[in-house]
Write a structure and sequence with these properties.
heterodimer, A: alpha+beta, Serine Threonine Protein Phosphatase 5, Tetratricopeptide repeat, four-stranded mixed sheet, two-stranded antiparallel sheet, 12 strands, 35% helix, globular, B: mainly beta, Immunoglobulin-like, five-stranded antiparallel sheet, 2 helices, 16 strands, 45% strand, elongated
Chain lengths: 610, 225
């Protein structure tokens, strides 16, 4: 036995000898990717870029159900624990965004790819660099539109352990300087991005131009409309506020970029003769003809639950929450009639008597096709099935209508017909519409899309041609150019209006067009901000139908022997769950800067009203 | 074996006892109260509107303690004893005074007046009912000479909380013809939904262009019957 141990020990000694070969210690790690490996392998770089694209910021975007219910387009009708969205005022930090972590990651990548990426071809390297600079410009745009001028950091900030942190304390740039930086970056990289043309999920030449179109329009309207306020919001150093004299230049830059995109390979999606369904398909069917830049989703790898959150009550395929977004009456009424008249719904006549309609959907007849494509209203269909919306019955007694509702959804009235439909609406109820409307736009109609097991894969549109047309229209209108009218009419023609439906433009027409075309696409909050009318539209007045999310309930008339029996009437209501009118204060035009940022960098100037 | 159990129980109870030591802080007991004043007179503000901030040095995490105001300009806050710094937030109907800190040494219940400089004040206000109208008569005084008047408004409401947000009637006064320091009047029809109440409330609000909030007169209760 002893011999055996001896032999064993000698064997071990022998094997240890082989450790003298140094390369054993210098093998490539199987679990760590080095900087040299990363920046010389296009596949690895693309997968890193996927991470950056996935971190592109938005406020109410990328299927943020909750955020979409915090403005005047909708209220929250999901679980009660989130009813705060119907009972709040925009806080001082609402919309605060200060993501220097992402900026630092991008700056680090840009420095490393230039220093280490020797094996990449020049074309590969310039494309990757351009994409990262595009993402950085996108992030700076998101910061400037919420915070005003922010520190422009374009290289890594590295502490030298000298005990003096002042070189790391970058002061805020002027608001206009940040917009100028975005413009300059995009102009420099747009040619390099042309290699991605035709790809909707990575930045290409037209994506850069679209961002330019949007950012320059924001800068221009802040320059113009901030200066028109009774007391412009500004700081003495220009961190907030852009001089009015810069407006024309910014509008020109925006219009030039928009025109380049419009002249490009894209076209408004217009294949379905049913204009309402066409508008819904435009986002739901992922057409690359209109959408310039999107965040895509795929079954099995990356999905979202927007459809689970918002599918109409009676068509849920899962067992829990649904129907969280209840679109508002003011949004529905902002869709014009096809004859060009204002979209106010005709629920009562001049004498204050209810107008009766034969079918539930008749009150919405002859409306802008985008209404069908955006919201679900009584009498319409979803997934080719009729929706079952009816708030209750209106019983005619003693000379007036008594509006009654069933305690359960889908209950029958004493006459054996529907009392309250399976889809409600029902006041003060959970997971069913509280306003009389459901969301259709971006709610997928794919099989099992509303289950949590499968989920939805329709994509999120960052930029699409419809917006670019409206950007061009607004910039051209502000510059007094005649082509503005044509851009708006093109967008309206796609929605079912006759050709050249408008003969003159006003600010209100353009603004209303943006509201209906781009509803729920994360535009309205920022649009009202840059036009400096948010504090007027959302003035917190409890009696103002624009600040309050109102609803429209449909009732079946019970009046035996009268010609109106079995017809439908509509009542405007204020949902009980909607507790407080939207209130946008002057302090909300620029979010407050976090206290720890102010503590760490004494050069940071506070925003006005904070 | 028995001693072993005893030791465990003793140790456990020790542990439990020590927990309570850290768990239960005393609640703050001292009250800091007061009101915002201009020339000794309290200023009316919007309910849930302007705020004050309290800060305390000497702790690693700095964050403000918000102090909310009642609509008559009064406030109160429950605090621990200590040194505080009181600042006036700029989102208000008075001049920004962000560098002008009031030091408060809180050792007992304290009442302080917080002086502010409003852009405008309202004085000599009277409200009378005549027929189906409420007539208001008041004087708007300019305090900050560089300020411009944006809005003068008469509000009627059915609750004591009546302001720019909570109101039933709002009537705008003519700003261009208003003379500072002279008697001005405004009148509002009592709408149908308020007509049959026993009493309603009326209030005047004034806003400077550079301010985000209104300064208000005290709320006046008016008997309708």
């Amino acid at each position: 036995m002893k011999k055996f141990y001896l032999a064993f020990a000698m064997l071990i000694g022998l094997t240890m000898n082989s450790c003298k070969h140094d390369d054993w210690f210098y093998r490539d790690s199987k679990t760590t990717i080095t900087d040299e490996q990363l920046w010389n392998d296009p596949n690895l770089i693309v997968s890193l870029l996927a991470n950056y694209y996935n971190r592109l910021p938005s406020l109410h975007g990328v299927f943020n159900t909750g955020g979409m219910t915090e403005i005047d387009d909708a209220m929250w009708s999901g679980t009660r624990d989130q009813n705060g969205r119907n009972d709040f005022q925009y806080g001082n930090d609402y919309g605060r965004y200060w993501d220097y972590g992402l900026i630092r990651d991008l700056n680090l990548s840009l420095e490393n790819i230039n220093a280490l990426g020797g094996k990449l071809t020049p074309a590969q390297k310039s494309l990757f660099v351009a994409e990262m600079r595009f993402i950085r410009a996108f992030v700076y745009f998101e910061m400037v539109k919420r915070m005003g001028g922010v520190p422009l950091v374009t290289k890594q900030l590295i502490y030298d352990f000298s005990g003096d942190p002042t070189p790391l304390q970058v002061p805020r740039a002027k608001e206009s300087e940040v917009y100028d930086f975005i413009y300059k970056e995009l102009e420099e990289i747009k040619a390099d991005l042309a290699a991605n043309n035709g790809i909707a999920t990575r930045a290409n030449r037209y994506t850069a131009l679209s961002l330019e179109s949007r950012a320059m329009l924001y800068a221009a309207s802040i320059a113009k409309y901030n200066s028109l306020m009774a007391a412009p919001i500004s700081t003495s150093g220009g961190e907030v506020g852009i001089p009015a004299s810069m407006a024309t230049d910014y509008y020109n830059k925006s219009l030039t970029a928009s025109k380049e995109v419009i002249a490009g390979p894209y076209a408004l999606y217009n294949t379905n003769p049913d204009k309402g369904a066409n508008f819904y398909d435009m986002l739901n069917k992922k057409p690359v003809s209109e959408v310039i830049f999107a965040k895509d989703f795929a079954l099995g790898t990356k999905v979202h639950r927007f459809t689970y959150d918002n599918i109409i009550k009676s068509m849920t395929e899962d067992n829990e929450a649904s129907s969280a977004i209840s679109p508002s009456l003011s949004l529905v009424e902002s869709f014009d009639y096809l004859d060009g008249s204002r979209g106010t719904l005709k629920d009562k006549d001049a004498n204050g008597n209810y107008i009766t309609y034969t079918n539930p959907a008749d009150i919405f007849a002859n409306k802008d096709g985008r209404l069908f494509g955006t919201v679900i209203y009584p009498g319409t269909t979803f997934k080719n099935n009729p929706v079952r919306m009816q708030a209750g019955v209106a019983v005619y007694t003693n000379g007036s209508y008594q509006l009654t509702t069933s305690t359960v959804l889908g209950g029958n009235y004493t006459d054996g017909q529907v009392w309250t439909g399976f889809d409600g609406p029902k006041d003060d109820a959970v997971d069913v519409s509280n306003t009389g409307f459901y969301l259709r736009k971006m709610v997928s109609d794919a099989p099992a899309a509303s289950t949590r097991g499968t989920s939805a894969v329709n994509w999120w549109p960052w930029f699409r041609l419809g917006e670019i047309y409206l950007n061009a229209a607004e910039a051209a209108f502000e510059l007094g150019r005649p082509e503005a009218l044509g851009y708006v009419n093109t967008v309206r023609a796609r929605a079912g209006f006759p050709a050249n439906s408008l003969s003159a433009l006003t600010n209100n027409v353009i603004r209303n067009e943006r509201r209906v075309e781009l509803a729920f696409e994360d535009h309205r909050y920022f649009d009202l901000k840059r036009w400096r009318i948010a504090h007027l539209v959302w003035d917190g007045t409890e009696t103002d139908p624009n600040a309050v999310v109102m609803g429209l309930y449909s009732y079946r008339v019970v009046r035996p022997g009268h010609p109106d029996n079995g017809k439908y009437i509509y009542a405007r209501i204020r949902p009980t769950r909607f507790r407080r009118a939207r209130m946008f204060r002057m302090a909300n035009y620029y979010s407050s800067i976090a206290q720890d940022v102010l503590d760490n960098n004494p050069k940071i100037v506070r925003n006005p009203f904070h | 074996m028995k001693t072993k159990f005893l030791t465990i129980i003793a140790a456990a109870s020790l542990f439990l006892a020590s927990c309570s030591k850290y768990d239960n802080f005393d609640a703050p007991e001292l009250t800091l109260s007061g009101k915002v004043v201009y020339q000794g007179k309290a200023l009316g503000v919007r309910n849930n509107g302007p705020q004050l901030e309290l800060w305390q040095d000497g702790y690693p995490l700095k964050s403000p303690i918000y102090v909310y105001m009642n609509q008559d300009g009064s406030f109160s806050s429950k605090l621990f004893a200590g040194q505080y710094k009181l600042t006036r937030r700029p989102d208000a109907p008075w001049l920004q005074q962000s560098t002008d800190t009031i030091r408060v040494n809180l050792t007992e219940n304290t009442t302080i007046d917080v002086p502010v400089t409003p852009y405008f004040t309202i004085t000599n206000e009277t409200f009378t009912k005549s027929g189906s109208n409420i007539n208001a008569s008041f004087v708007v005084n300019k305090v900050v000479q560089t300020a411009n008047l944006e809005l003068v408004r008469l509000y009627l409401g059915k609750s004591v909380l009546t302001d720019q947000v909570l109101r039933d009637v709002r009537v705008d006064g003519n700003v261009s013809s208003l003379v500072f320091g002279a008697q001005t009047s405004l009148s509002a029809d009592i709408p149908d939904n308020l007509k049959n109440l026993d009493f309603i409330y009326a209030r005047i609000g004034v806003k400077a262009t550079v301010a985000s909030e209104y300064v208000y007169s005290p709320v006046q209760k008016i008997a309708l019957k």
